[in-house]
Design goal:
274 residues, alpha/beta, Rossmann fold, nine-stranded mixed beta sheet
Length: 274
């Protein structure tokens, strides 16, 4: 999947990865902020689901957006690639102010949506100003490259992570979700040793990163966000005959941010909102 190109006719919309629901399927702070970005009582929000087993959650989100006063909420069940070419789906994307992407498995998202008219339209519309949020697997899917699968654990190991193409809304990030709850530091670190030009974002549940068109990230929610910056990486080595052995990684910079904190993805600098 190709990366979205900057539009000459507007400002890119926000990109909002959310670390997952936990037990707070209707996090008021995160959904309210997203609804406000989309226009509040005048907004049209589209919810995309590719997995039939999460339909109950989809309808709870639909009800939550309606409870927040969103004027129009459209649910798109895109469980096949053919559905991603439907006239209704493309009409919703053409008129939506924001898209909320759900998913239970990043690979299934990529297999279902990848290189379809739906993904091409999402990239184009986001470049023109439509906001795009993704929760759980939907969060991991937002950048150019995503963590498709992996194992829990704090220590990076060569075989702890698998990578795959993502949606392509933003290029310099690798995002992992349910981060603290499922002990995913090791696999994020390993993904970054393969991609030292990227910045790693580990999202706790009920926590979101609102990434504006100026590439400033703001934390919203009850948990924390782990930012891993490998731009000054000095050393990492994977022994070809010891694929499960621990990997030494030297020179990483790590920040832990909570609600109200800011991170400039261009300068790699964290700050506290005053």
């Amino acid at each position: 999947m190709s990366r979205a190109k900057a539009s000459t006719s507007g400002t890119r919309g926000f990109i909002v990865p959310i670390g997952g629901d936990g037990k707070r399927i209707r996090s008021a702070a995160i959904l309210r902020r997203f609804a406000q970005l989309c226009g509040g009582s005048r907004a049209h929000v589209g919810i995309i689901s590719t997995a039939s087993e999460i339909q109950d959650a989809v309808y709870r989100y639909e009800r939550a957006f309606r409870d927040l006063g969103v004027d129009r909420v459209s649910v798109l069940k895109l469980e096949t690639r053919a559905a991603c070419e439907s006239e209704r789906a493309l009409n919703v994307l053409d008129s939506a102010d924001g898209i909320f992407l759900m998913g239970s498995d990043p690979v299934h998202l990529s297999e279902t949506l990848g290189s379809t008219s739906v993904t091409q339209t999402i990239r184009s519309r986001n470049a023109q100003g439509m906001h795009v949020a993704g929760t759980s697997a939907g969060a991991a899917f937002l950048p150019e490259q995503m963590i498709a699968a992996g194992q829990s654990g704090t220590t990076p190991r060569a075989d702890i992570v698998q990578l795959a193409p993502g949606l392509g809304l933003i290029g310099q990030l690798i995002i992992d979700q349910h981060f603290r709850h499922q002990d995913r530091l090791g696999r994020l670190l390993m993904a970054l040793t393969y991609n030292p030009l990227a910045i790693g974002i580990g999202l706790d549940e009920d926590t979101a990163a609102f990434i504006g068109p100026d590439h400033t990230l703001q934390v919203v929610g009850s948990g924390g966000i782990t930012i891993v910056d490998p731009s000054q990486l000095q050393h990492s080595a994977i022994h070809p005959d010891r694929r499960h052995a621990p990997v030494s990684v030297i020179g990483l910079h790590l920040d832990i941010l909570v609600e109200g904190s800011l991170y400039d993805l261009t300068t790699h600098m964290a700050s506290i909102k005053r």
